[in-house]
Amino acid sequence: MNTNTYILRKEKISDIPQIDTVTKAAFLSAAHASGTEQFIIRALRASGQLTLSLVAEENETLIGHVAISPVEISSGEPGWFGLGPVSVLPERQGTGVGSALIKAALAELRQLGAKGCVVLGEPAYYGRFGFRADAGLLYPEAPAEYFQVLAFEGIVPTGTVQYHASFYATE
């Protein structure tokens, strides 16, 4: 049951330990998880690549988190970002917290003037937000149907996407 008793806001420094906890819990039994998601977020933050970091908070406890970071496209097209990791405590998954975080993050990206966003994830889930696979924009490290794009201005660049080196963090 979704009681919508949580608020969405930007992360504070004091949230970092809880973000780690939420992220570890969210990905503990996820089918395609690497187990390094919390390290990715830490590395993005440390390298200055964490463009957006939003949390869902309920009764002073974090129940969800979303990260947004820039991506590079081989064609040189600027203004593109990657969505993820998206984390929601297991007991709150399926209640709309993740959707609310994603919608808020995408709205903030649009306000920042971003041209679009990519995501690596379940097509049926992310399709609800307008993400679609596009044969012109590639991420060779994953099956094509799981790499999806959402253009804010209607134009999808062609090329290969590269995430920041932080996505290879293992500790």
Describe the structure.
- The N and C termini lie far apart (35 Å).
- Strands 1, 2, 3, 4, 5, 6, 7 and 8 form an 8-stranded mixed beta sheet that branches.
- The protein is an alpha+beta fold.
- The relative contact order is 0.18.
- The chain has helices at residues 16-27, 37-46, 97-111, 123-126; strands at 7-10, 52-58, 61-73, 80-88, 116-120, 137-138, 147-151, 159-163.
- Helix 1 (16-27) packs antiparallel against helix 2.
Give a summary of the structure in a few sentences.
The chain is an alpha+beta fold and 171 residues long. The protein is built from four helices and eight strands.
Say what oligomer this is. Answer: single chain
Strand content: 25-35%
Could you say which overall geometry the principal axes of the C-alpha atoms support?
globular
Extended strand count: 8
Q: Report Rg.
A: 15 Å
Question: Keywords, please?
Answer:
single chain, alpha+beta, eight-stranded mixed β-sheet, 4 helices, 29% strand
